[in-house]
Write a structure and sequence with these properties.
Helix content: 25-40%
Number of domains: 3
Oligomer: single chain
Number of helices: 17
Largest sheet: 9 strands, mixed
Strand order of the largest sheet: 15-14-16-17-24-23-22-19-20
Shape: globular
CATH class of the largest domain: Alpha Beta
CATH architecture of the largest domain: 3-Layer(aba) Sandwich
Distance between the termini: 42 Å
C-alpha cells in the first residue's frame, strides 16, 4: 500500500495535480516487488470547495484526467473512493465575513499484491557493498518545472508551470524496468523524487544510510535550482559500480535512457555535497543538513510532547560516530531447540488471553503455534463464565494492543477485574502457584500482570507501569539487551542485543522509591533493558521510548516462570516482520528463540 497527494499543484493546474497524485503513489509503490503495474488498484479520496469560483470545473477536469484518461492508459482501475465537497468555511468575526478555502485535493491510495516482501527496497544507502553509483531516472524528462514546489512556497510564490505526468507509456516502462532490476538483485536502495525535489530525496537517503554523498548536477540542465528543487516524478537508485552499465542498458532498452543519469556516489567524509561544472553548489556535513531537516519537527514536538524528550532526539543526530542499529547474539538464530519436542506430535495448550480491545492475540498465537504449542484463543469472559478452565493450560499469555480502547491505566483496570472478583482471583492464583505453569505479559498484558504481583509467587518486587515520559503513544523500533535473569523464556539469550517493536503509551516503570529499584536490580530479575547503539542501558529518548530508569523494560519473578515486558516480540518473530534486520536473517528472527524456550521448558 502506498499514498500519493500533490495538492499544492492544484493552485496551478487541477488536472496535473490529480495525475501527479497517482504518479506519486505509484513511484512509492514501485519500491515493493509488485508483479505488474496492471495488478495495482487505486482508491481516490476527492476533496473540493464546491461552489467556489473555478473549483467545480477544476474537479471535472481532474476526475476526467485521472478516471477517463490516465488510469486507462496505465491499465489501472479505481473501483472505490470518497468525496468531501465542503472544503470551505465562512464565518463572521466582529461583523466581518471571513472565509478559508482549501484547494482541490485528491489523495490516492495504491494497493497491490507483493510477490516477495524480502525484496522491498528502502532509501537506506548501503555502505558495505563496495563502490556504488547513484542514478537518477527523470520522468520529468528535463523539464524541471518549479510550480507549487517547496522552493516556490518558501519564497511565497506559486509559479506558472507545474510538474505533470506527461507520458503514461514512459511511466509504465519505468515501473516495469524497476521491477525487473529489483528481481535480479541489481538495486541496493531506492527513493522516489517528491516533496523537496532531488535535493531532499538524496539527503534523506544519506540520513538513512548515515553516510556522505557527492553529487554532480552537470547533466540535469543549466538551472541548478530547478535541478535540485523541482518536484517532477522520478527516482534515485543506488547500484554497485560493477552493475552500472547493466542497469543503464536495461533503462535505455526501456526507452528511458535519454533522461537517466549517473549523478554521484558515496563519500567517506560524511559530507552532503552538490557540484555543477566542477564548482561546489551546496555542501555541509550530513549532521547539519539532518538537523536542519528535523528542526521543524523539533519545534512541533516541543509544543506537543515533553520538550526534554524532543531535544534528546534532536541532539542524537549530531553524534557522527553513532553506529546505528546493530545486533549481537549469544546463540544461533537457526538453532531450532524445540524441534525434538515438536516431532513428538505433542502440542501443549497455551491460553492466549485477551480482553476488550486487545488486538495482539493473533501474532502471539502464531508465534507460540510455530514453537510447537496449541494456541487457544481465550477471552476473559470465557474464564469468568466457566467456558474455559485455566487448569487445562501449561501457559498463559496476556496480550497487548489497546485493551479497553487504550484508556489510561487500561492494564491496571484489567487486573482489578480479576482482583475484585473472588472467583476469578482464585482461578488465576491457582494457575500462578502451579509449578508446571508459565506466563507472559506483553504491553497492556504487562501492565495487567504487574498489578497481579500479589498473586504471583516471587513477583512482589514488580513495579507499576505509567505514562511515557514523552507524554505520547510510542510506536517504533528500539534496541534491547536480554539480561542475565532466571526467566525461562530467555534461557540461553543473556547478553544478546537486538531490535524489537514497541507500541505503548504507558510503559514507564514506576517504583515507590529508589530502594525498590535497587532491590529489583540486586535480585537479578531484570530480563530486558533498552540500550543505545553502543550497547549501554539508556534513558535517552527515543532509544528508550518511555523513560524507564536504567532502561528497564522486562522483568521476571524469582523462579523465572513468569515474565512481563513492554516490547512486542510476537510482532517480529519472523525476519520479514522487521523493518530492518541483518541480511543473514532468512526466516526466523532471534525472537523465535523465546517462544521455543517455552516449549522446551514445558517438556
Amino acid at each position: 500500500m502506498a499514498i500519493g497527494e500533490r495538492t499544492p499543484i492544484a493552485l496551478v493546474h487541477h488536472a496535473a495535480s490529480a495525475r501527479m497524485a497517482v504518479g506519486e503513489a505509484l513511484t512509492n509503490l514501485a519500491a515493493a516487488r509488485v508483479r505488474k503495474l496492471d495488478r495495482v488498484v487505486l482508491s481516490a479520496n476527492w476533496m473540493v470547495p464546491a461552489g467556489h469560483p473555478g473549483e467545480d470545473a477544476g474537479l471535472f477536469e481532474a476526475v476526467k484526467a485521472v478516471g477517463m484518461q490516465l488510469c486507462p492508459q496505465l491499465d489501472i482501475t479505481i473501483p472505490v473512493g470518497k468525496d468531501s465537497m465542503s472544503m470551505k468555511t465562512v464565518w463572521q468575526d466582529d461583523g466581518q465575513v471571513k472565509e478559508v478555502t482549501a484547494p482541490l485535493s485528491v489523495v490516492i491510495s495504491a494497493f497491490a499484491e507483493v510477490t516477495d516482501v524480502r525484496k522491498t527496497l528502502t532509501p537506506q544507502l548501503c555502505t558495505d557493498k563496495g563502490d556504488t553509483d547513484l542514478i537518477l531516472i527523470d520522468l520529468g524528462k528535463g523539464h524541471n518545472r518549479l510550480g507549487a514546489s517547496a522552493l516556490a512556497q518558501v519564497y511565497k510564490q506559486i509559479g506558472h508551470h507545474a510538474p505533470d505526468l506527461d507520458d503514461p507509456q514512459s511511466f509504465k516502462a519505468f515501473f516495469e524496468v524497476l521491477q525487473e532490476l529489483n528481481e535480479e538483485g541489481l538495486l541496493l536502495a531506492y527513493h522516489d523524487r517528491s516533496d523537496g525535489g532531488l535535493f531532499v530525496s538524496l539527503c534523506e537517503m544519506a540520513f538513512a544510510g548515515h553516510c556522505g554523498i557527492s553529487v554532480h548536477l552537470d547533466d540535469l540542465g543549466d538551472d541548478v535550482h530547478a535541478a535540485l528543487f523541482s518536484e517532477e516524478l522520478g527516482a534515485v537508485i543506488q547500484v554497485r559500480h560493477c552493475d552500472t552499465d547493466t542497469v543503464m542498458k536495461a533503462v535505455h532498452d526501456a526507452g528511458l535512457g535519454h533522461h537517466t543519469h549517473v549523478i554521484g556516489t558515496l563519500n567517506d567524509d560524511d559530507q552532503v555535497e552538490f557540484s555543477f561544472a566542477h564548482k561546489p553548489v551546496l555542501s555541509s556535513s550530513r549532521t547539519q543538513f539532518q538537523q536542519a531537516w528535523s528542526e521543524t519537527s523539533l519545534q512541533m514536538q516541543k509544543l506537543r510532547d515533553n520538550p526534554d524528550c524532543a531535544q534528546q532526539e534532536f541532539d542524537l543526530i549530531a553524534d557522527v560516530d553513532d553506529p546505528g542499529m546493530n545486533v549481537q547474539l549469544s546463540f544461533d538464530v537457526d538453532d531450532n531447540i524445540s524441534a525434538p519436542y515438536i516431532k513428538k506430535n505433542i502440542r501443549p495448550e497455551v491460553a492466549i488471553l485477551r480482553e476488550q480491545g486487545v488486538n495482539g492475540h493473533i501474532e502471539m498465537a502464531a508465534a507460540f503455534d510455530r514453537a510447537g504449542f496449541n494456541s487457544v484463543d481465550v477471552h476473559m469472559s470465557d474464564i469468568h463464565q466457566g467456558r474455559v478452565d485455566l487448569g487445562d493450560f501449561k501457559g498463559l499469555v496476556a496480550c497487548g494492543g489497546f485493551s479497553y480502547g487504550d484508556v489510561l491505566g487500561a492494564g491496571e483496570g484489567w487486573a482489578k477485574s480479576i482482583l475484585f472478583n473472588h472467583e476469578l482471583k482464585d482461578k488465576f492464583s491457582a494457575f500462578f502457584n502451579r509449578q508446571d505453569s508459565f506466563g507472559l505479559g506483553v504491553c497492556n498484558g504487562c501492565q495487567m500482570m504487574s498489578n497481579l504481583h500479589s498473586l504471583i509467587p516471587g513477583a512482589d518486587l514488580w513495579p507499576r507501569f505509567v505514562r511515557n515520559q514523552s507524554e505520547q503513544f510510542e510506536a517504533r523500533v528500539a534496541m534491547v539487551e536480554i539480561g542475565d535473569s532466571p526467566s525461562v523464556l530467555f534461557a540461553g539469550m543473556s547478553g544478546s542485543r537486538l531490535p524489537v517493536a514497541v507500541a505503548h503509551g504507558e510503559g514507564r516503570i514506576e517504583f515507590a522509591d529508589q530502594s525498590a529499584l535497587d532491590k529489583l536490580m540486586q535480585a537479578g530479575l531484570t530480563s530486558m533493558q533498552y540500550v543505545d547503539h553502543y550497547g549501554q542501558p539508556t534513558e535517552t529518548y527515543p532509544l528508550n521510548p518511555n523513560g524507564s530508569a536504567a532502561g528497564m523494560t522486562g522483568l521476571c519473578n524469582d523462579d523465572g516462570r513468569f515474565t512481563i515486558m513492554m516490547p512486542h516480540p510476537e510482532r517480529v518473530f519472523r525476519a520479514v516482520q522487521h523493518s530492518w534486520h541483518p541480511e543473514d536473517w532468512l526466516e526466523d528472527s532471534p525472537w523465535m528463540r523465546m517462544f521455543r524456550n517455552a516449549r522446551v521448558w514445558v517438556d
